[in-house]
Design brief:
The protein is of the alpha+beta class. The chain is built from eleven helices and ten strands.
Amino acid sequence: MVEPPLRGNSLATFALSSEQRAILDSADAFARDRLWPLQRKMDDEEWWPSDVMPMLAQMGYLGSTVPLQYGGAGSDIFTSGLITQALARWNHAVALSYVAHDNLCTNNIARNASEYLKERYLPALCDGSWIGALGLTEPGAGSDALGSMATTAVRRDDKYILNGRKLFITNGPVADIVLVYAKTDKTMGTKGISAFVVEKGFHGFNVAQKLDKMGFRGSTTAELIFDDCIVPAENLVGTENAGVGIVMSGLDLERIVVAMINVGMAERALTLALDHAQARKQFGRPISEFQLIQSKLAEMYVGVEVMKTFCYRVLAVASQVQPGSEGYGEIHKLTAAAILYAAETCTTVVGEAVQIHGGSGYMRETEVNRLYRASKLLEIGAGTTEIRKLVIASELLS
């Protein structure tokens, strides 16, 4: 279990405990051996390896925040973040799908759903036999996902009828269940939104198209359609018209875990840049001997270390947050700040790694190129850079 953050200026406030380090190192070794060899095929073909989720489950990485009674690991957000960091070092596409499954879907169900839904869905999500996704973003609703939401859910006896579309859904083509948000009372605006667990076999639910992305290829993405989709009333998560609280609580935890994808990718980019700088020779010397290259490497290192320290601090805070206290206040500001800094720093570090690689870094088949094409998404997904700034400023001025 993760130790609580300590008061004062103790090193433990800013560094990993021995147990946390063991979790990170174990996940790193697993990802290097099992996931790194998959990344090129995943990128070339937008291919999702069907045995990945069961492999993650065997390692105990699925259901990291889910209580033991439902098949989870009974741990916390800090552990989930460390696993994400390690996966992202070696296969950032798997890391993204892992977060969508384990944090956006599984963790939200564990924190907010009824006992019936927990017992029905969590064991399969934790053992990797089912894959989860989150259905929030729509074709006409990105940053204004709540205010512009057009998907509706109408209660009819013992079921809800859903109609609408969801776009840019990570894991959409392979998901067995989707946590879907829809308006149950249009007159209430954003306060009239509810959350539902929708199974892929439900009547009226279909994958409209698998999307072809610039980066994070292999972490499959889709547009989903709900055409008079029949959802049992008991699949309502929480209470009717209370979906906003679930969304906001989920976003806070999502942001800090997604921030750890940035950390892992930036760490890998720095390693690749160091290796290349020492191996590549120009003018009769390794380019690592040139002061301009040394300057880049030094600045990349500082960026990586600062983002790690900040993100670890926010993970520690997030791990202590009780359900219902997210979506506002200090945790709302901190998670937005962590992902804002991590995403912008990751983009900078990966960009400098490509620069150090020179022409080879521009070639699509290289690992550093895959990191470069993926990094931009992290300034857009889980709330854009601009939205993150608005969140921070709003809390500062409140």
